[in-house]
Structure formats: structure tokens, C-alpha cells
Amino acid sequence: MAYVRNAWYVAGWSHELEAEKPFAISILGERIVIWRTASGALHALEDRCVHRLAPLSLGRCEGERLRCMYHGLLFDADGQVVEIPGQAQIPPQARVRRYAVVDRHSWLWVWMGDADAADERLIPPAVGLDHSDYILGHGHLDYAAEARIINDNLLDFSHLTFVHAESFGSGPQFAETPARITPLDRGIRYERWTENSTGSASRRSPEPMDSFMTYDFLIPGILLMTGGVFPLGTAKACDYGQPDLSQAVSGVTFTSQAVTPMRDKSARYFFSWGPHRSHGDEALRDVLMAMADQAFAEDKVMIEAQQRVIDDTEEVQVMPTVHDRGVTLFNRLVEKLARQESGSALEAA
User: Fold this and answer.
1) CA dihedral defined by 128, 129, 130, 134, rounded to 10 degrees?
2) Residue 128 burial (CB < 10 Å; 0-12/13-18/19+)?
3) What is the spatial distance between Cα 8 and Cα 113, in angstroms, rounded to a whole number?
4) Fewer CB within 10 Å: N-end or C-end of the chain?
5) For the chain, the helix, strand and coil percentages under 3-state DSSP, each to the nearest 5
6) Tell me, what's the pLDDT at 170?
């Protein structure tokens, strides 16, 4: 499956990276070591020593450098070997790949393309755990499945009616009526109004209201979703477009989610969720996170089972439905950007 390389992938939660303690992860099948120095600087290199291929993630931080703890080669932050114990001459090819890495929105983001071409303006605007307006819980989940089919799940919410009937308590409208899907430069926007409803489990209302939800799904696989509950007639009053969330009477929450392809048929799913401070507290956050834990476990069962069926299918073909507009637009965008990157690489060669 094709993936965009000139993009920022989530490697982990920034608060879980301890100073001077290297952290290992694979993204797009590439082994990466990330470490934070005592000064707070963040670095990422290929997690493979040039000598005998020992993992540098088992190494020792020395200032801004990282020492392989197998035979002692010392690497600088650019990936160049600067010391080989007992050997004065250092071969010029004694270096490993450097990755651009940034700490933002409580996530560690790694640019999988050329580190010198990394563009921080392309980091999706997630909401961090320290955001002053939201009270957020967080977690992650590992899938024995291709990241692409997890993305497809998040791009087609018609499954909420069936997969999450017991957790989110989603009504029939998700399957019965398509949402509004708008193409974006690096993703799609999903918008849905549910009129004259008491809502779902996460946005329950004691009397009928208009409920709004929207999310942007951005390259490489980032979902940023919010919404709220409004007085009856709000949907029509704003012509079924985006409302002013400050006018919501309840139910304003935010969730940031990220799907990171690690290896073939292996992905890590990061998520946070919680209420706006004007619409909830830590107790509601915990209720929402318990609901999310149940729902994401439901997704995991279905998606991993789907992966097994795909693996057993000789010629994989899917039959799109009306709900696949977001899936189709996003996957076409991924394929387009991946082709452009391949073309640029061929020209450079």
C-alpha cells in the first residue's frame, strides 16, 4: 500500500520520552531511535549501528550525542560517527540516516522524507494534552493490520451504526444518510448535523436538540474532531454549515487521533479525547475515555478480522458505496502525492 513520505507521522507521546533515555519505533518499516538530551533537544536517527547493526536505541546519551553500547561507536545528532574506540581514522561512510523530529501538540512527530526538506507548517493542528480549553485523556492501541484500512475505517463513519451500537450508541442516521464531505489540500473534511435528536451516548441531551460533529482527516492519517449540541433550528439557521461552537449548549469535545504505519500489517493508533472546560470536567473525561476504550476495542476486532480476510483473498476487490466518498478522495490524494514523490526521486537520481 502506498504512503506519503513527505509528511509528519506520530511516533509517540512527548511526555513519555524521558530525558537521555532513547526510544525505539518503526515507521513505514524503518527502525528509528528518538532521544531527548539533558538540554531538552530532540534528535532522531536510524536505529542501526553501522558496525554490527546493533540497535542504537540500546545506547547511551552523551551530551547531544548517542553512543552504541555494543562496541562504543559515538554518533552525533546528524548521524555521523565521531568516535570509534581504539581507531583514529573514521571512514566517511560511517554514518546513519537522520530524521527530522518535532515535539508539538503533546506528540513526537517524525518527518519520513528528506530531513532537510521537513516543513513544520505541515504538522496537523492537533489539540495537545496541555491545551487550556480541553480536559483530555489519552492512550494508544496496536493493530495487527495495515494502517491504510484503519484510515478507511475512520473515513467512513457509516460503521458507527453497527460496530459501535453498544459503545457510542450511535443511531441509524450514520448508515442511512451520507455526511457532507469536502476535499482539503491535504485531506478531507467531514460534517454532519443530526436534527431533532436526543443525541448519542457521548452527546446525550435530555430533550431534542440539533447535534453537530465535524472532523478533518489529514495526511498522513490524522483525525481532528469536534462538535456540540445546539438548540433546535440551529442546523437550518446556519444552512447546515459549521456553527459557532461557543453557542453550543452542551457536548463540546475534542479528539485528536493518529494512525502510524509501523511495519507491514502493523500499526499504532494514538488518541486523546475529552470535554471543553465549559462543558465538562475530569469525571466526564473519564466517562468518555471508558467509552472510547470500548469502541476502539470494537474497531480493533473488526479491522484485524478484515485484515485476515484480505490476506486470504487472492484478488482483493472492494465494492464502494455512497459512504465511501471520503475514503476515495483521501486514498486518491495519498496515491497522487506518493506518485509525485516517486517521480521527484527518479528525477533526482
Assistant:
1) 90
2) middle
3) 9
4) C
5) 30, 35, 40
6) 74
